[in-house]
Amino acid sequence: MSAPLTLAVDLGGTKTLAALVADGRIVDSRAERTARDATAEDWIAGIGRLADGWHGRFERAGIAVTGVVAGGCWSALNPGVLAVPDGFPLVDRLQRALAVPVRAVNDAQAAAWGEFRHGAGRGVRTILFMTVSTGFGGGVVIDGRLLVGRTGIAGSLGQLAARIPGVDRLEDTLSGQWIAAQAAWLGHSADAAAVIGEADRGVAWAAGIVDASAGRLAAVIADLQYLFDPDRIVIGGGVGLASGYLKRLRTKLAGVRSHTPAALVPAALGADAGIVGAADLAAGHDFHATEEPELSKEEMGRCAG
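Below the sequence we write its predicted structure tokens.
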């Protein structure tokens, strides 16, 4: 008997990916560019378009989104990545659009779970997952348990304080958006992928930007190793998996004080980690995960149905 299908969606600041997933395997997929200046209702409509023709083939859905999810409500952590309205009733809206039960989770948490169950984290008990993409985030699995937290923000590494005066978030010092902004400041019109490509070819200005990003990430990794003592640290995201980035990160990490460095590995599922994780969570396979956060009445009031 074949495994039941789950519709999984990864809605990020750059693209929206939808897929039919069975037991960690993607059966079919479709993607479109995320219209970052659109409304949350527009994004829901876009998911409906991507799922068009699949209705009747899936019995549940999971969605991984940038930002924070608590009690089915979705809010931005960094509006610069995607300007999500505070307390948007994501689960309610998507269940109406798809007519199946929906589970929503932060994209990096979903990716962490996907890698733990079906990717680079298989065979160990504790992993840190870090995604360097349009933004920067993370997820933590401790002793086989996905860390979600009381309000859903656990693992939101991009929100850590920056180590640069005048900059609030760590995300704003190393992400893909930051890399592109630094290139523009130096007079080069290039997105993060192009900058990393130039760095890989030995272009000095580009190498300086990418080295700065990798150096800041290395410092965070060294600190988190003392906090969680993971078996593996998994790096994902379009920037994190770009050619040459992981090598630069390993070089920077070698120069940072660390008692016993954990294995630093690329995400085995690549860009599919969030999709696979969201499907696995929607199917209820997180039998060791923390419970869904319970919100107060005041917090629930921010999520209008």
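The mean pLDDT is 89.
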